[in-house]
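Page header: ASSEMBLY MODEL / two components / 377 residues total.
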Amino acid sequence: MTRTPDAGSLDGLLAHAGEVPERGARVAAALERIAATEPAPPGRGVPRRAVVIGVTVAGVAGLLTAGVTLSTAWLTSPPFQELPEGWSRTTEWAQVDWESPDGEFETCRIYLELERADRDVMASLDDALRERDWDDFGQELYDSLPGDPVATSVESEVLDLAFPIVYELAHDAIPGLGGFGAAGDGPALGAGAATCRTDL
Amino acid sequence: VSGDRPRAEALAAREVDALLAYFERRVAVRADAADLVGEALVVVWRRSADIPGDEREARMWLFGVARRVLATHRRGSRRHRALTDRLRGELSITGDDRSELSQRVRDAVRALPGRDRELVGLVHWEGFGLAEAAEILSIRPGAARMRYARARERLARTLGVEAAEGQSGSESDEKVP
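Prediction written out in full:
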């Protein structure tokens, strides 16, 4: 049962301090407008973003989303629940590091997951990931973001830019590699999975 | 796939007022709350596929987003959007009529360690149970109870009142008050 706290008690003081000024009609109207207005994705086309989200949903059942928001140590908690049957994940990764203007350092790893890939294909892809120089890769992406990136979404924004580049690397490394969800007998991209940490 | 736009819109419509109140209670300049509402909703729209189907869980998820937006604001990062101009203007005009006592209480809450402060706010101002607040903050319920009790004691000392109450969260999902 809810009871009204005594005004002089700690609960009463907290309740009073939590009151917000009464909303005027104009504030209410402005709020309604904001709630009903979906902003355009900042600075990038819809198709590319749709591809990334599509992979998240269709490919790894939320795994990417969990990875993107992880702040736990990836060595103990890789992105990285179980893989679907017939999928393989790279052991190498794309390194995506950046530092914000206020000195906060963030580092992410993007792994790739393939369907129907044999050992040779995975080895080739690991080689490509290992041999690419990832220095400055993440910083350049971060610096290219429009405006003042907000930390709550900056991971997503940088990774939205990074994923297609890593996918492109995979296509270059594996001739004939199928796109996401491609049917057939040959290897195809299944997903990208990222995990990030801050302030290492 | 472009997320779950209808769910995001429904959540925004349902909670936008509470979201504004959340930020108003926590920022020094009331008009800043407008930008933070806008920023939180951008995250909601961007991550609409992640919104839980259950309304209560969706609300908890939303306040988890709000908490991170606020943390960013406190680090000095911000983004101003045309979308929130009108609300910012209205909040500036109406000003802030916080009483001296309320301000003192808020200052005392603000002086608590980060998670303790958020626990107190989520429980007393946003109406979450202690277990729910713990989940939003990603801490264990037992740790939340300990932090909450410690925060109450500290607030009581600062404000010169008794900490004792019947709703301090010995039951993990108890509402206060």
